[in-house]
Structure formats: structure tokens, C-alpha cells
């Protein structure tokens, strides 16, 4: 059989399998029913151990969203200090924007650094190291009012904290996916969003003027959430490493013990089979591990990245995952970081605004926990699209209310805007849970850390740019000039999710990988574009020319964006050191 015949036969089998896995959806297909066999091990201890490690990973990463939300309520308390240092209120606002956004930029760098460990099988060691960096950075942030150049040190500490959180978010989500049984994988990954909502609420509470949100104690509020890292480090240190990591090190016995530590007796065998299928060809574990270690792409970073980005099996889920996670619920960047200022701008006092910011976080935390209970009973796609539609409605109503001075002439802004913000954040709780769950699920086991790391970079660079500029836009032009672009992007987001996202609930990583073709996405591989070329006639056969034109345009846009980011960094850091 020739190579061409072999490839055609493989594609035909893959298409048949894909059709069976991803049939045309009916309405009832969006409700997933999990069957459980009777008479099997029902001991509660494997689930308790699994939850303990999963919750520790969340406490060391996503719970530190508290460090983002606490700065929202701290602005009234911190502003006198910043004005005493920088003089003008406008300069104080810019300094505060950099304190807020420095952690977001750290998250992007942390995601970048996690690429360095993406081709290393161990998960536990990077997690413990990153958590220690998290705690150290959080401790430095508390020195902001105690020493000279404290604002600079605070920015640096929050930057280090962001680096640690970025590494944990990437490596931790990979470990959660590897230690969880397939039937509970979605629920375990969704706990990260529950931790984020809980952390946001905790930060809002700590920032109240009755606790740490005072002109004397506000620096301690920048440290307090980091204390949750200490018990998380101990729990992960005592737990076994990822079973897949142990299997790649050739220790099948330890891998099986780790699976038995985390999963029920009727679950770990299917997980082990999934790992074996992912590692590659071979008849025994020893042969498979030997093949993996001999592969140059599994020992060196650059060859591995070149190999991954030359295959559509990685590039296609990467592009889809980047779109899903980078643009999921953009309104979060406004409400989490600057809701207090938004509420002050519509007429609330500083004290009332901080309490309104706290109150809008309660429904989000409650709904995120409630959604966790029923998360695996619904389609991932539905849990992203419906809340995003709700977010669009909330944004429209906020914009209409601000433009008219009240909502429909009935509800004043000081009531309508906080209520709509609470509804918007509640929608974010559900859509974010699904987004943070589905992105790691899109990748094959060996690609998960690398893919989610680069996506994390893109998401946090965008978040850093938004938090660096949003406060100035809100104060100078109005909240509607921030929500308006978010609203339009949410519309595009819904269309993209409904059109391209496959179902991943209850499906193994090996089966999900079959959904993505091995050829790279390009104009030549687009059926719609080929039909357009055939219709135009003149351009038919000139795909390379058009690909070159598209590439030049994309490169120009990227260079302009890079130039703008560099100017922003130089200007911002010059301002802080000045």
C-alpha cells in the first residue's frame, strides 16, 4: 500500500469516528446524562483526596483574583497616599492603573514561563515553586506605604505574584485534567472559576472601610489573600504527582497507585488507557516511554514548539481555544477592577460605592457554586452562549441608562447600574466556568500545557491593556465607551462559539483530538474560499499570492501592536520612577 493510500484510509476511518463522536445536534443532545454502574466501589475517600488537591490548586491560583478585586474597593483609601506622592489626581490615577495592571502583566509572563515546563512530565514541582513565588510577591506588595519608592516595589511584588499565578493556572489546569476521571473532569476544572468568584468576593470584603480598606491598613489588604497559599503548598507536597507524569517516567506501578489515590476503581483503568493511547505506539509501557524519551521534540523546547505548530492537530484547537478564553466575558475586566469608580461616577458616595461593589459579587459566587453541581449535565457550548447573550442585554441596558440618566425613566442609575452589573457578573460565572473547562479539554494530553500557556499569555496581555486604560476612559469619556466595544465583541464571540466549538463533555482527550484535522488552517484549505476563487476565476490557482498578502497584513498589524505596547510600557514605567 502506498503512503497516499494509507493516508486516505486513515482519513476515512477518522472521518467515520468523528461522525460518530460529533453527530448533528438536536435540542435534547445539549443535555448530558451520565450513567453510573451499580455494585462498584463507592468509597468517598478517593473523591475527598481528589477534591483536596484540586481545591489546593485553585486556592493557589484562581483564588488570588482577590488581589484584583481588592484594589477596586481600595482606591478611595489609597488615593490620598498616591496624591501625596504624585501630586495631581490624574497622576495618582495612572499610578493606580499600573498597580492594578502589573499583576495582569505578570500573569502573561507566568504563562510564558510555563511553556518552559510544558515538555517536562512533572506537575507537582512547578506548582510548589510557583506558589512560593506567589507568596513572596504578595508579601512585597504590603510594603507600598512603608518604604520609599513603595509604589514601585508594590508593582514589582504584584508582578511576581502574577508570574506565580500564571504558572499555576496553566500547569495546575493540566494536572487537574490528568488526575480527574473523565466523567468528573469538567466539574473539577470548573472549580477554578468557583475559586475565582470566591476570591473576587473575598477581595471586595477585605477592601471595605470597616476591615482593611482604610488609609492606614489598605496596604495589608494587598497581602492578606496570599495567606491561602500556605496550606495549599502543604497539600500538594503530600499528594502524589500526576499519574501521566509518573507513567512518562516509566513508573507504571506508581502511576497506577496515583490513579487509585485520586479515582474510583471503575474509573482509573479508562484514564490509564487514555494516557497509554496518548503516549504513542508500542506494545508495552517500557517501549512507549522509550519512544517518548528518544523523541528530540520531547526533550527540547524549540523542536517541540516547531513540531506542534506545524500540525493542524495542535494549531486548530489552539486557535479555537485562544478565541474562547481571550474574549470570554470581557465585561469582567471592568466590573472586577473598576466597579467602585463606575458607581461613584453615577452618583454614589465612596462608602456606598464600595458596598455596592461588594454586593454585586455575592450573586456571582452563589451561582458559580450552584452551577458546579449541575455543570456536567449540560453542553459546554450552551453554558457559554446563553450567559454571553445575557451579558449583551445587561451592557445594552447600562449604556441606555447612562445615556438617558435613568433606566426607562423608572429606576435611577444608582440602583439600575449595580443591579445590572450583578446580573452581568452572574452570567460571567457560568460562561467562564465553561470556557476555563473546555480550553484544556480541546488539547491532546501532550499539548495541554503548551497550548493553555500561550493562550494564557494572549488573555492576560489583553487584560493588562484593558486594565491599564479602562479607568482613564471611564473617568474621561464615560463607562459606555468601555462597555460598547465589549458588547460588539460579545456578538462576534457568540457566532464563533456556536459555529466552531465541538462538544467535549464526557469525551476522552484521544477522541476529542480526532475532531481536528491534521492539515494547517489556511486559505488553501478553506472550502468556502476555494468556492469563491472558482467563482472569480481570475484568482483561481493563485493561493500563494493571496496567502503572502494576508501574511504581510497580519505581520504589519502585529508590529504596530507590539510598538504600541512598548510605548505604553516605557511611558508607564517612566512615570512611576519619575
TrEMBL record:
One of its GO terms (cellular component) is membrane. It is a multi-pass membrane protein. It comes from Bursaphelenchus okinawaensis. Keywords: Membrane, Transmembrane, Transmembrane helix. Signal peptide: none annotated. This is Major facilitator superfamily (MFS) profile domain-containing protein. PROSITE patterns: MFS. Pfam families: Sugar_tr (PF00083). Residues 54-505 form the Major facilitator superfamily (MFS) profile domain. The chain crosses the membrane at residues 50-75, 95-115, 127-147, 159-177, 189-208, 220-239, 314-336, 356-375, 382-402, 408-430, 450-474, 480-501, 548-577. It is found in: Membrane.
Amino acid at each position: 500500500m502506498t503512503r497516499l493510500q494509507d493516508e486516505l484510509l486513515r482519513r476515512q476511518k477518522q472521518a467515520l469516528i468523528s461522525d460518530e463522536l460529533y453527530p448533528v445536534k438536536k435540542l435534547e443532545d445539549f443535555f448530558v446524562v451520565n450513567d453510573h454502574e451499580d455494585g462498584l466501589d463507592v468509597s468517598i475517600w478517593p473523591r475527598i483526596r481528589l477534591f483536596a488537591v484540586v481545591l489546593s490548586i485553585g486556592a493557589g491560583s484562581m483564588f488570588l483574583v482577590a488581589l484584583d478585586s481588592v484594589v477596586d474597593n481600595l482606591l478611595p483609601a489609597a488615593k490620598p497616599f498616591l496624591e501625596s506622592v504624585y501630586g495631581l489626581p490624574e497622576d495618582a490615577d495612572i499610578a493606580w492603573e499600573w498597580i492594578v495592571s502589573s499583576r495582569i502583566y505578570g500573569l502573561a509572563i507566568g504563562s510564558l514561563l510555563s511553556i518552559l515546563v510544558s515538555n517536562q512530565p512533572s506537575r507537582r514541582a512547578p506548582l510548589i515553586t510557583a506558589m512560593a513565588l506567589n507568596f513572596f510577591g504578595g508579601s512585597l506588595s504590603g510594603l507600598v506605604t512603608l518604604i520609599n519608592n513603595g509604589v514601585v516595589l508594590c508593582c514589582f511584588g504584584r508582578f511576581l505574584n502574577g508570574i506565580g499565578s500564571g504558572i499555576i493556572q496553566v500547569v495546575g489546569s493540566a494536572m487537574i485534567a490528568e488526575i480527574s476521571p473523565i466523567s468528573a473532569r469538567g466539574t473539577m476544572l470548573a472549580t477554578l472559576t468557583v475559586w475565582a468568584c470566591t476570591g473576587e468576593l473575598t477581595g471586595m470584603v477585605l477592601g471595605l472601610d470597616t476591615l482593611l480598606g482604610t488609609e492606614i491598613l489598605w496596604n495589608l489588604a494587598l497581602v492578606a489573600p496570599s495567606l491561602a497559599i500556605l496550606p495549599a503548598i502543604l497539600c500538594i507536597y503530600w499528594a502524589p504527582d500526576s499519574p501521566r507524569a509518573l507513567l512518562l517516567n516509566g513508573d507504571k506501578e506508581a502511576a497506577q497507585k496515583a490513579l487509585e489515590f485520586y479515582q474510583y476503581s471503575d474509573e482509573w483503568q479508562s484514564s490509564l488507557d487514555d494516557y497509554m493511547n496518548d503516549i504513542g505506539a508500542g506494545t508495552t509501557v517500557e517501549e512507549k516511554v522509550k519512544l517518548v524519551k528518544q523523541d528530540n521534540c520531547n526533550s527540547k523546547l524549540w523542536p517541540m514548539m516547531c513540531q506542534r505548530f506545524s500540525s493542524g492537530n495542535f494549531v486548530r484547537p489552539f486557535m479555537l481555544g485562544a478565541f474562547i478564553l481571550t474574549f470570554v466575558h470581557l465585561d469582567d475586566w471592568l466590573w472586577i477592577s473598576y466597579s467602585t469608580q463606575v458607581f461613584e461616577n453615577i452618583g454614589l458616595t465612596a462608602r456606598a460605592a464600595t458596598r455596592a461593589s461588594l454586593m454585586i459579587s455575592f450573586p456571582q459566587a452563589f451561582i458559580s457554586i450552584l452551577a458546579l453541581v449541575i455543570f456536567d449535565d449540560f453542553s459546554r457550548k450552551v453554558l457559554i452562549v446563553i450567559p454571553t447573550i445575557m451579558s449583551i442585554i445587561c451592557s445594552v441596558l447600562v449604556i441606555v441608562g447612562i445615556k438617558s440618566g435613568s433606566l426607562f425613566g423608572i429606576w435611577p442609575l444608582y440602583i439600575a447600574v449595580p443591579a445590572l452589573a450583578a446580573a452581568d457578573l452572574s452570567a460571567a460565572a457560568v460562561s467562564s466556568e465553561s470556557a476555563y473547562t473546555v480550553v484544556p479539554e480541546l488539547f491532546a494530553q501532550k499539548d495541554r500545557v503548551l497550548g493553555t500557556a500561550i493562550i494564557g499569555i494572549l488573555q492576560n496581555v489583553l487584560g493588562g491593556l484593558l486594565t491599564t486604560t479602562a479607568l482613564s476612559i471611564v473617568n474621561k469619556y464615560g463607562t459606555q465607551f468601555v462597555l460598547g466595544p465589549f458588547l460588539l465583541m460579545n456578538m462576534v464571540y457568540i457566532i464563533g462559539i456556536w459555529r466552531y466549538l465541538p462538544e467535549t463533555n464526557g469525551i476522552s482527550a484521544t477522541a476529542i483530538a480526532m475532531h481536528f484535522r491534521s492539515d494547517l488552517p489556511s486559505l488553501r484549505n478553506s472550502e468556502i474560499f476555494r468556492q469563491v476563487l472558482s467563482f472569480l476565476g481570475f484568482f483561481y490557482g493563485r493561493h500563494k499570492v493571496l496567502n503572502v498578502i494576508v501574511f504581510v497584513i497580519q505581520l504589519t498589524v502585529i508590529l504596530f501592536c507590539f510598538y504600541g505596547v512598548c510605548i505604553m510600557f516605557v511611558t508607564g514605567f517612566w512615570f512611576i520612577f519619575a
